[in-house]
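Posting for a labmate who doesn't have an account.
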Amino acid sequence: MPVEPAEIDGSKILITGPTGQVALPVVEHLATIADVYALARFRKAEERAQIEALGATVLQADLADRDSLSVVPEGLDYVLNFAVVKSGDFDYDLAANAEGVGNLMVRCADVKAFVHFSSTAVYEYVGHEPRRENAPLGDNHRAMFPTYSISKIAAETVCRFVAHHHRIPTTIARLSVPYGDNGGWMYYHFLMMQQGIAIDLHPDKPNYYNPLHVDDYIEKIPYLLGAATIGATTTNFGGSQRVSIEEWCSYIGKLTGLEPTFQDNPKAFGSLCIDVETMHALVGETSVDWRDGIRRQLQALAPELVQ
């Protein structure tokens, strides 16, 4: 049985990284049932206006700058940390992603629960074997995002240390291919198919992942909060279904009439499917079939091409 979900209706929730593809729908949903504070650098006025229009309170700060976090109010119930920086500058990215989560947790040390959204990019490539939470870690995404995997590993380490030191109930959720009606990896593949661009595949096929639809991750957030422990609970967080890049591109082709073109590239991300046993024990199974999720995505973003 899953853990008891946290009661979030009417609560005071801080969400970082609110303008990103993953967190934006969370802000939109939670702002209708809770008192939401959205923290980001907000360098674009239109992004600030977008978040305010959803009913969230905007907090302008930089996680790498501890002093800027003075804008964070007292009395928060929960924190959802989606923030991530991928500038390619190791000094800044480690400061923002790793030191940043520490800065945030210290500022919010009295919360009932803190969820840090990490990534399955922390795992070393080992072929098609589903990664358990204790699997070896590695610099998985170096070819495309030089600082990403290392920053995520460092952030998890800082997160655990602060959770222990300040006794903050914490969950670390390693996301696997989050997507929805506002985008995701498969939509980029659709765009590549539309433009006739070859899609890189690791030669060790098929390339499996566990896509996680926005409906599912929003529905599971109260369970992630409920699973938080002072020892920092770590769990994979993806869809219950395993599906390959080849399969979802073929399905996109079926829906649109476009033909995917693949090319082998040893530097491409290899198969990164996850073991879902711990996740199912904590939050239960996901419900959105990956085909339905992709169909909905394309109907939202490219309705004129969906047959």
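Reply:
Got it, the structure tokens are right above this. The CA atoms of residues 115 and 171 lie 5 Å apart.
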